[in-house]
User: What shape does this take?
Amino acid sequence: MNEDRSSSGSGGLSWIDRLGQALTGEPRNRDHILHILRAAKEKELLDAEALSMIEGVFQVAEMQVRDIMIPRSTMVVVQRSSSLEDMLATVTRSGHSRFPVIDDSRDSVVGILLAKDLLRYCAINDQEALDLQDILRPPIFIPESKRLNVLLKEFRHSRNHMAIVVDEYGGVAGLVTIEDVLEQIVGEIDDEHDIYEEAYSILKHSDDRYTVKALTSIDEFNSTFDTEYSDEDFDTVGGLVMHAFGHLPKRDEVVTVDQFRFKVLHANNRRIGLLEMHVLPRDEEETEGV
Assistant: This one.
């Protein structure tokens, strides 16, 4: 043990002793703390992953729910009037574990359905046996302005994993999960279904409207839309769009690249997640380019 401590240099101090020395004295503010920690990383007292998580903790204290929520337009929901067969199809297709249940519109969320609560009905497949009201969990509604650190604390205490986000008028703006918050600290959390979903990177709604995942490769985009963007400059559509913006965009920002107009549907402080894309008529493309 003594050899380990002396071999680390700096007069025989271990890395933890040296880190303690670096942090001696009262930090002036948050930026000062981060400066000290980044200097510690440069001296190899912290690894890059540990520093990234610490920075994520600081960011969570500043960010609001609106910065990371899944927007209303991309929420996967279940209609309360749906048949058991349709519900099971939605669960299977999406791979999610929790679903907002709505009445007539996405503004009328009446509960949260857990996929595991439907499992008991899979074998019998009996619509009459299903009383949806009995298995619905009460929805938790939160404002867009709620701080993420406060939300994480509430998630832990209530043991809820999903909350419905409402705007200032009381309408549903989106949803947020505990995984979305934790990803701000530890980075992207991929599960088996995330890998499976990579096959569905471009979703066609009409001849001129698509939903495109930002991680869609440039090669796949070129193949789908008969374009010739170089993958030497950008590997993904997200990289192409971010270059066009000139910065990391926020939700609802719009940019036009040639004949494609991209609107950001989902993004966090690290990367773009989901894009809505409209293919513009040639005359409109030329007008916008003037």
Notes: Residues 95 and 191 are 10 Å apart (CA to CA). DSSP finds 13 helices and twelve strands in the chain. Confidence is low (pLDDT under 50) at residues 1-10, 192-199, 286-290. The chain has three domains: 2-46, 66-186, 199-289.
